[in-house]
């Protein structure tokens, strides 16, 4: 096995383990805000898998597209976590900006 | 079966707990499971493209990853207003 193939397998296993860990965390955690932590972790797992494909294929058509997918996944994680947490907060407690405006008016 | 296909199979089985969490918890608690399932599916498509040497699968992943992001954001936004 060449060094490149070995590096690809190591990255593949690391990415897969991160994603399985994210799923386990999702199942173990009871609170929705605790579960949100694992969305970002799964994105990093996807990125490692994409880098594994890139290492094996180099910058070919399939390698470039895998890198694109990995970047989308890893960048989507924080965006999803922030927007979901914000939406759930508004759902539970209402819009805090209206309360801030009311407080400044009085 | 090569290592890419094995990884795709493992992640395919990891979708089952995500589905269970989505079905069994309340709508707010299900949303993170849907988001993780979207990431898993995108990764599975990349792995299948590499393992089976089928280029179209990675095109599916390129389309599915942003669509999954947009869908999850939309769900979160609608959930904010309890729709």
Low-confidence segments of chain B, given as residue ranges, are none
Structural class of chain A: mainly alpha
Helical fraction of chain A: over 70%
What profile does the largest beta sheet of chain B have? none
Verbal overview:
The complex is a heterodimer of chains A (106) and B (83). Chain A has 106 residues and is mainly α. Chain A has a single domain, classed as Helix Hairpins (Orthogonal Bundle). Chain A has helices at 3-28, 32-57, 61-93, 96-105. In chain A, helix 1 (3-28) runs antiparallel to helix 2 (32-57). Chain A is elongated and about 70 Å long. Chain A starts with a helix and ends with a helix. Chain B is an all-alpha fold and 83 residues long. Chain B has 3 helices and no strands. In chain B, helix 1 (3-24) packs antiparallel against helix 2 and helix 2 (27-52) packs antiparallel against helix 3 (55-80). The radius of gyration of chain B is 14 Å and the shape is flat. Chain B starts with a helix and ends with a helix. The chains are: A mainly alpha (106), B mainly alpha (83). The interface between A and B is large, with 46 and 43 residues.
Task: Based on the model shown, name its key terms.
heterodimer, A: 106 residues, mainly alpha, Helix Hairpins, 90% helix, B: 83 residues, 3 helices, 89% helix, 0% strand, flat
SSE inventory with pairings:
The complex is a heterodimer of chains A (106) and B (83).
Chain A lengths: L2 H26 L3 H26 L3 H33 L2 H10 L1
Chain B lengths: L2 H22 L2 H26 L2 H26 L3
Helix pairs in contact in B: 1-2, 2-3
In short:
Chain A has 106 residues and is an all-alpha fold. Chain A has 4 helices and no strands.
């Amino acid at each position: 096995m060449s060094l490149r193939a070995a590096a690809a397998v190591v990255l593949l296993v690391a990415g897969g383990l991160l994603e399985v860990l994210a799923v386990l965390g999702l199942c173990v955690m009871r609170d929705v805000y605790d579960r949100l932590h694992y969305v970002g972790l799964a994105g990093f797992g996807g990125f490692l898998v994409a880098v594994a494909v890139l290492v094996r294929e180099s910058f070919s058509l399939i390698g470039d597209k895998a890198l694109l997918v990995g970047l989308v996944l890893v960048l989507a994680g924080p965006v999803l976590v922030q927007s979901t947490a914000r939406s759930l907060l508004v759902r539970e407690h209402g819009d805090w900006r209206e309360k801030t405006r009311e407080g400044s008016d009085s | 079966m090569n290592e890419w296909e094995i990884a795709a199979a493992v992640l395919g089985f990891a979708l089952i707990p995500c589905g269970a969490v989505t079905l069994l918890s309340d709508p707010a608690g299900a949303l993170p499971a849907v988001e993780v399932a979207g990431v898993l599916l995108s990764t599975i498509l990349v792995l299948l493209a590499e393992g089976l040497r089928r280029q179209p699968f990675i095109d599916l992943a390129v389309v599915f990853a942003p669509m999954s992001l947009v869908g999850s954001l939309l769900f979160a936004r609608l959930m904010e207003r309890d729709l």
